[in-house]
Amino acid sequence: MADSEPGIGKKILSFFIKDAEETATGTATSKPAATPAPESPRPAPTPAPATVTNAAGTGQIDKKFTEHFVTLLEKANLPGPDYFEYKQALQSMDGLGLGEEKQFQAAWASFKAMGGAKDTTVLKTSADQYLGILNKDRDAFLKDVEKAIKERVGALQDEHKKLEDTNAAYAQQIIDLQKKIDDNKNRLGQISGEVSEQTAKINSNKDSFEVTYVSFVNQIQSDLAKINQYLQ
C-alpha cells in the first residue's frame, strides 16, 4: 500500500484498536437498524477517545501511545500489497458469520484477487518487518525510560537512601543511649545498696567510737574521783 493512500492512519487504527465507546454501545440493547443498500460505503472508524480498550478487551491503552504507533506504522508502510492489505481484507470479513479459519482463508483469497502475492511469504515477511519496527521503537522507548529514571528518580532514590541511612544511625544512637540509661539505672541500684551498706558501717563504727569514748571518760572521771577522795 502506498503512503499516499488516504485514510491509512484510520485504517491502521481500526485494525488494532476498538473504541471503548463503540464497545459499550455494541453491548447495549438497541432497535434493529435498516439493512443498508449494497452500495453503501462502510463508515469510517470514529476517532479514538482519550482512553480506549484494546481489541481483546483485556485492558486499557493510552491515546498518546495509540497515536504514536499509528503514526509509526503509517510512516513505515511498505509499497504494494502486504500484511496491511491482508489485514484490511480480513477486517472486511467481520459480520459475515464465518469462523476464524474461514475468515482468514476468505481474506487470503480476497488478497490474492487484488494483486497480492500467490503465497503467504509476503504476509509473514512484511508482518515481521512491522514487528521489527515496533520492537526497535520499544527498545528506544525503554532506553528513554531508563534515562528518565536516572535523571528524575535518581535524585529521589539518593535522598531516600540518605534518609534511611540517617534513620539507621539515629536508631543506633537510640540503642546506644538506651544502653547507657540501662547501665546508669543498674549503677543507681548498686549505689542505693552501697549507701545503705556504708551508712550501716559508719553508724556501727560511730557506735563503737562512742562506747570506747564513754569507757575512757568514765575511767578518767573515776580516777579523778578517787584521787580527790584518797589524796586530800
Q: How many β-strand runs?
A: 3
User: What is the CA-CA span between the terminal residues?
Assistant: 157 Å
Overall geometry: rod-shaped
Strand content: under 5%
If helices are DSSP runs of H or I spanning 4 or more residues, what is the number of helices?
Answer: 6
Oligomer: single chain
Largest sheet: 3 strands, antiparallel
Low-confidence stretches: 1-6, 19-51
Order of helices and strands: HEHEEHHHH
Please estimate the helix content.
over 70%
Spatial strand arrangement across the major sheet: 1-2-3
The helix/strand class is mainly alpha
Give the overall average pLDDT. Answer: 76
Write a structural description:
The chain is mainly alpha-helical. 71% of the residues lie in helices and 4% in strands. The chain has a 3-stranded antiparallel beta sheet. Strand 2 (51-54) and strand 3 form a beta hairpin. Helix 1 (8-16) crosses helix 3 (63-76). The longest helix is centred in the last third of the chain and has 110 residues, at 121-230. The termini are far apart. The model is unreliable at 1-6 and 19-51 (pLDDT under 50).
